[in-house]
Write a structure and sequence with these properties.
Helix 1 crosses helix 2, helix 5 runs antiparallel to helix 7 and helix 8 packs antiparallel against helix 9. The protein folds into two domains: 59 residues, Homeodomain-like (Arc Repressor Mutant, subunit A), CATH 1.10.10; 132 residues, Tetracycline Repressor, domain 2. It is built from nine helices and no strands. It is 77% helix and 0% strand.
């Protein structure tokens, strides 16, 4: 028989998880919009309407909090990647083009908040936090592996030359995309991303 005490404990654990998830969602919005340095713990607490004690119950420090925010962002992006690249319809390179088009729509200069959190945090704090740098590196590697898998499919179909090195090509595409996204922020223009798409799919990936 379930006791009242076990029900109370289960409710408290659920509420605790809900509080943690809420803090992470607020943190993700603020860090994406303002950056790590300009996002204070108190600002997150005020927006989330959560007491300071609850924050430090779940996170050891602001750096630990930022690492968990980044992990949440990576999980969300991995779901997008799987939906379009792995489970989407169409030829491999068609899916890859659609994928980058979606990324540009979500993170490009026309988006409400432009920029990729992986790229932004790499520039802002990778040199100052070993734990966040490690997560950034593994996240980029995971992303690269997903793109390389689609390129291998294209090779198997004969859409890319057999001499293609999919891992190196995937790395180059992601590096080029991140660079174009950064330049688009500096220029406040979609032109760098348009150039990336044109050269990637009309030159580099054209058989």
């Amino acid at each position: 028989m379930t006791t009242d005490r076990s029900v109370d404990l289960g409710t408290k654990e659920m509420e605790s998880r809900d509080t943690r998830d809420h803090l992470l969602q607020v943190g993700l919005r603020r860090i994406r919009a303002r950056g790590y340095a300009s996002t204070g713990v108190q600002e997150v607490l005020d927006e989330a309407d959560v007491p300071k004690g609850s924050f430090y119950h779940h996170f050891r420090s602001k750096e630990d909090f930022a690492r968990e925010v980044l992990a949440l962002y990576v999980r969300k992006q991995s779901e997008r990647t799987a939906k379009i690249l792995r489970n989407g319809k169409g030829a491999p390179l068609t899916r890859l083009r659609r994928y980058f088009q979606k990324l540009i729509a979500v993170f490009g200069p026309a988006a409400p908040v432009s920029g990729c959190l992986l790229g932004n945090l790499s520039l802002e704090i990778a040199d100052h936090s070993d734990s966040i740098q490690s997560l950034l590196r593994s996240s980029f590697n995971q992303w690269q592996t997903a793109v390389a898998g689609v390129l291998r499919e294209a090779m198997e179909r004969g859409d890319l030359a057999k001499a293609t090195k999919p891992d190196d090509l995937a790395a180059f595409l992601l590096n080029s995309y991140e660079g174009a996204l950064l330049r688009s922020k500096a220029d406040r223009s979609n032109k760098p991303l348009e150039l990336f798409m044109a050269f990637a799919f009309n030159v580099l990936l054209k058989r």
